[in-house]
Amino acid sequence: MKSLLLFSAFYIFYLCLIPKDLFANHATGGSLTYSHLGGNLYSIHVEFYRDCSGDAIPVTVTVYISSAQCGVMDSIILNQSWVPDAEVPMGCYSLATTCTGGTAPGLQRQDYETNYTFPFQCSDWVLSANLGTRNVTITNIQHPYSANLYLEARLNNIGFDNTSPQCSNGPIVLSCVNQNFVFNPGFVDADGDSLVYELIAARIDANTSVIYNIPYSGLQPINSSPPVTFDPGTGDMTFFPQALEFAVVDYRVLEYRNGMLIGSVMFEMYVYMIPCSNTMPSVSGIYGTMNFDYYVLPGPFCFDIYSYDPDTSDTLILLANTINIPSATFISFGAPRPTGTFCWNPDSADVRPQPYTFTVFVEDDYCPQRGSQDYSFNIYVTLDSSLVTQFHPPVNVSEIVAVVPNPFHHQAEIIFSKSFINVETQFTIMDVTGRVMDRRTVNASSVYIQRGNLIPGIYYFGLDNSSGNHFTGKFIVE
Q1: What predicted TM-score, i.e. pTM, was given to this entire model?
Q2: What is the pLDDT of residue 437?
Q3: Domains in the chain with CATH codes
Q4: Are 174 and 272 a contacting pair, CB within 8 Å?
Q5: Reading across the β-sheet that carries 402-404, which strands appear in turn?
Q6: C-beta separation of 172 from 88 below 8 A
Q7: Backbone Cα Rg of the chain
Q8: CB-based contacts of 106: which residues, under 8 Å, 6+ apart?
Q9: Which residue, among 244, 224, 219, has the nearest Cα to 139 in the 3D structure?
């Protein structure tokens, strides 16, 4: 409980420093995006997060829409939509937070949405919203309790039907003092446009930025040593926090099509940096390397990603967001340290200079405060064989599990390594969609696979035993 007590004590202490008449505050992040529905009709969407110790969630949000080119100034009301006051889990799921009448800090999410028909086609549409004053506990800007949270999106709809990038990872981030941390917002783009990321100063209106406490800035919003690093191609932000603080961090995501800027969105996140007794989990690059970029020729390929956590009692989950690569698959096998297998079969139509990006999320089950991180992987599909990178699974002779023959027509034998021989082991087969095709418990030195109802293609198998050993592999049915 030590981490939670420190976190709660600081939170309460900081609240006591604020004048009582300044408690009209709550905003802890959000985004403003749009989706094309047809013609000039768009769905306008606001995702809003608030501290449960502050004001109640607004019933509606006003979005202002303008174009200097077309001489338009308009506004629309967005009503609450599909997320009704959903609490954002920050610690153990069993903790009672301020959202549910408890004392642990709690945050809630609310979405707002409505449809809007743009009256003209213009190159400079600006959509903006003011979501109220920011959370009182923010430490990297001056007077957060009087600094409005301003969000903005831009659109050029002259000759373009465009859906803005959408954020798939929420803006509430929990990191540990004196531990390296990686965050990626997980933006996805339905149109396959190229995205460029920027760190920017948080705003209180269209023309005014917040005032940062020295030495913070929009580009260095966190007390980190070494300084915050940021990848404009992926949106990865890496930092090593030095002190307990709560920081506001703002992204801008620029959207390009055929080299032309056609839109942008803003995303404001809220980073908690607290003392931890938990070590953050992490993932490797491709096949255990530190490389997160992969150049491939058109055609099928797979690679593995490994999860790590030095806290031996923690069990991890490993998930991937492959929305930007719709035909790709990601399957996670094993416990407590799962291995993820990514597979894709790009063709010549997928060749392009910019990468296809997917993100991987890893989380532990430590209590009272779970640890998690996000990582991005870039796949470049090329026709230049000289660029193709070669990665191979790490070889540990004592842990090799063999599939004989592989590929096979009728039957194959999976021969166990010493970790699985004559030990009760769960054996699972899944297809590339993640559907379980076979699951059984075995206690032997090998297991046979019958073709049966397995159609030709790639399949994955997992071995997990009571000693905590796990293995993932793949085989091909011809």
Answers
A1: 0.71
A2: 84
A3: 2-274 (no CATH), 282-387 (2.60.40.10), 397-477 (2.60.40.3080)
A4: yes
A5: 402-404, 411-415, 446-450
A6: yes
A7: 25
A8: 51, 52, 53, 87, 88, 90, 97, 98, 99, 100
A9: 244
CA-angle at 3, arms to 136 and 359, nearest 5°: 80
Residue 461: which of 334, 358, 359 has the closest Cα?
334
Q: How confident is the model at residue 436 (pLDDT cuts 50, 70, 90)?
A: confident
The whole-number pLDDT of residue 186 equals 82
Is the pLDDT assigned to residue 127 strictly greater than 60? yes
* Tokens representing residue 342 in the block: 């990514």
Structure tokens at 30: 């959000």
Tracing tokens 């940021």 back to the chain, one arrives at 230
Residue 4 CA to its chain's centroid (Å): 24
The string of pLDDT tens digits covering residues 295-348 is 999 988 888 898 988 888 888 989 988 888 888 888 887 778 888 889 888 999
Nearest CA to 260 out of 360, 356, 160, 384 is that of: 160
Q: Give CA–CA dist 325/192, Å, rounded.
A: 9
**Sign of CA pseudo-dihedral 64, 67, 71, 72:** negative
